[in-house]
Amino acid sequence: MAAQDYWHYPRTALADSVLMAFDSGLSHALTMFAPRRMGKTEFLLKDIAPRAEEHGWRVFYHSFMTDGDEAGEVFRLSLAEFAAGRMKSWLKPLTARVSADLLGVKAELGTQATAPAHSLTEVVQALTSSGKTILLLDEAQILTRLARNEELLGGLRTGLDINKDQLKVLFTGSSREGLRRMFSEARAPFFHFGTNIELPTLDRGFCAHLAAAYRRSTGRPLDEWRLWEEFEAMGHVPGRLRAVVEAMVLNADLTLAEAVALKVHDVHDEVQYAKILKALPLLDRLVLQAVLEGAPLFAEDTRTRMAATLGSAVPGTTAVQSATERLLRDEIITRRERGQYEISDPGLGQWLKALTSSQETP
Ligand SMILES: Nc1ncnc2c1ncn2[C@@H]1O[C@H](COP(=O)(O)OP(=O)(O)OP(=O)(O)O)[C@@H](O)[C@H]1O
Ligand SMILES: [Mg+2]
How many Cβ atoms from other residues are within 10 Å of residue 111's Cβ? Predict the structure, then answer.
């Protein structure tokens, strides 16, 4: 399936080094952080998964993105189903119970499942008894949002600990803060897991690859150097460039410049951004603005500028601290090393920048 996708630009070297680390027993768990739309999911599904299977691993991919409050439960059941599905013949009882669990959840999502549940540790145990597996856990930091997932995280941790050789895990996340929380907080002590690997920004080869794929599908030429200029201008976000090229595939009349202009404003995203901004208290918005400008959040002159907009006394460092914590918790901003902050979603950052400059120039 993945090999047929000629739009995909393989990250072969990175995938190979991850697999080497797992194959050789050097690593048991790795963490990959990158902002939104930078290609984490694509890397897991199209680079790691097929290669891992070639190396004799079974691969379980799970994204925690969409299941909201049920994220933990859905994960446990999906993993159980995966484990059971692989071991039908000799693990009938497990299969039967899992099906009951699944049916229970399907029927009563949001209420109490009635069937007796396997703990995650049991599921992991069952899984590893039948062969080696790589878990690709996408946006895993979502699990830390709810206190009730603590037990599940504990079970996962124990399962990984006991089965290091048979079970490897690659965590990804778009929130550095969320992953940091998951790895360092006492109740979910994953801290000795998760050596961090970088997902490098894509290079010119990506643009050459997209230009070739465009030629292949349309028979029309596309200047890869112009593509590269646009890619740089949009902050090296592959999802955005793909959207531009897709627009040009679908509409032969569009020039590159027109497609960029069309796609630079992703209407769906912008509605979301506007909602996020609207929901923030004024002080939080000002802290966000300061993050955008790279201003030191707690410095006196930053706070004095905030006061001017607030039309009140200069906010104290405690108030600014609380606002910062709220933004971190909601994963709107992310803590970098040495007290630096950044906006988690580069798209939101760009949108805010455009908004600010349009307000400054009358
Ligand atoms: N290696 C690649 N080759 C071709 N296209 C890519 C590649 N990586 C990413 N893309 C494009 O960028 C889009 C976004 O990538 P992806 O969904 O993997 O990002 P993500 O980091 O998981 O983002 P999110 O935080 O939104 O989940 C993909 O749908 C695809 O169109
Ligand atoms: Mg993703």
Answer: 9
* CATH class of the domain defined by 2-198: alpha beta
Please give the pLDDT value at position 248. Answer: 96
3-class secondary-structure state, position 96: helix
What are the residue boundaries of the structural domains of the chain, listed by start?
2-198, 204-264, 269-360
CA distance 216 to 289: 44
Q: Is 41 in the pocket of ligand 1 (CB under 6 A)?
A: yes
Task: Among 4, 32, 41, name the best residue to mutate to test ligand 1's pocket (greatest count of ligand atoms within 8 A of Cβ).
Answer: 41
CATH entry, 269-360, from 1.10.3210, 3.90.1150, 1.10.8, 1.10.10: 1.10.10
Q: What is the pLDDT of residues 137-192, one digit of tens each?
A: 998 888 777 777 888 888 888 888 888 889 999 999 877 666 666 666 545 555 55
Structure confidence at residue 88 (pLDDT): 44
Amino acid, res. 172: T
Number of the ligand 1 atom closest to the C-alpha atom of 202:
1
Rounded to whole angstroms, how far apart are CA atoms 282 and 92? 57
